[in-house]
Amino acid sequence: MLQTINYTKQNLIKIFVISAAFFITSAFHPKGSAAIKYSKSFSTQVSESSDVVIDASGQHIYMVSDNGLLFETNSEGKIIRESDIRGIDFEGICMADQLLYISDESARKVYSVNPENLKIVKTFNLNYNAGRNRGFESIAYNASLKQFYLISEKEEIVVRVYNEQFEQLNELSFKASADISSACFHNNHLWLLSDEDHKLMMLDDNFQVSREFTMNVHNPEGFFFDALGNLMVLSDDMAKLYQFEAALIQ
User: Fold this and answer.
1) Predicted local confidence at residue 23, as pLDDT
2) CA proximity to 237, closest of 214, 217, 219, 212
């Protein structure tokens, strides 16, 4: 009887280990994971580009660079205007209520900018205890909840939730990728881009990955969805915009 009980315990342990391994594997490879390939690409004129956003009309595209510059470009990345704003390390950009919001990672600041004249409207100072180059890499805006998401790049990826006055509401740790290079709120979901993993992730309401897409883009630093639903991914090193057809991510 004792041998039978021990054997049963061993089997239970094995089942537990196998189940745990399956759970961990599933967590890092969510249902709906797929490889996607771009259909076309455009060379951009913005050096050291770090993020990109499109306005609600789908007619105006704005890029920021690692050296603290802001540009308006056409749909193929050609420069139309350059702002006279001079930051330190612009890493993330989004739009909210017809204003641009830019995350200056090293300075721990967010600037609201009028897209009409590319002038600063207001500056928000953020407190985040990390290395100089370990601030907020990405910014996105949820219009329904009127909340901003600011995400650090790596070495513990942190997602912070702020209200429109940039008062902190929540903070959580994100562990489903090696890094985060850009964020965007699209079709009622927060989407995150990983440079090192070369993948795009769609999150659910609990900030868990519900879908992910791997891509053949070197150093993907920013992205947006155009008016037709096409995914546009910005490569820093290659200085290119890559277009992925909307049908690939339906």
Assistant:
1) 38
2) 219
Asked if the model's pLDDT at residue 32 lies above 50, the reply is: yes
Range of the domain at 9: 1-30
First-to-last CA distance in the chain? 57
- Domain match, 104 and 206 both: yes
Pair 132, 117 in one domain: yes
Checking DSSP bridges between strand 240-244 and strand 40-43, what pairing results, if any?
Answer: antiparallel
Longest pairwise C-alpha distance within the chain:
83
Q: How many domains does the chain have?
A: 2
> Per-residue pLDDT for 120 more than 80?
yes
Same domain, 9 and 101: no
- Coil, helix or strand for 12? helix
Look up residue 159 and give its amino acid: V
* 235/18 Cα distance (integer angstroms): 39
